[in-house]
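Milestone M4 deliverable, item 7.
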Amino acid sequence: SLAFSSEISHYPLCRGCRVGPSRRRERPLPLIRPRLRTKVIVMDKKKIFLVSLGHLSCDINGGALPAILPFLITAYGFDYQAAAGLMFSCLSSIIQPAFGYLSDKLSKPWFIPVGVLLAGGGLASMGFLHSYWAIFAAIALSGVGAALFHPEGARFANKVSGASKGTGLSLFSIGGNSGFVFGPMLAVAAIGAFGMPGTSVF
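Output delivered:
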């Protein structure tokens, strides 16, 4: 009986009892989660270059307009008030938020070439027009083209920049700034050589 009682004493009588040898709790192994490798999207340099070139081609028209005004005064006899009024036709570019909303909803890549075509075509036709309001409408058409280009162009530049979005958008901006630099020089050189039809270079 003593041997039997000694064997019983090695085991706990209940779960809460501390009688008998302590049981070693097995801790669950930590869950090892596999590390997901994030894929780095590389900037498409060719597409960034093309959209930056399009930005230059678009903004070169806006940069050329102030340089063309003195030639309009000389060629068509506009007074300074009428010539300054032509600058207000460029305010059509304030509709850019509307085109930005349209770009978010539709996101059509052909907005980019159509915008460049309208911006250049409006300014190019100006040298072949003689009516003040026809010239005003041509400049307004150029402003609509610029407004159409910029939202979709910026969205496209952001898309193809990959992980280097800051670099891509800065290259896109360089194209536009270069257009405002080269626009006046191109306008003076072309009109000085060919007269008002020289606007066809745009």
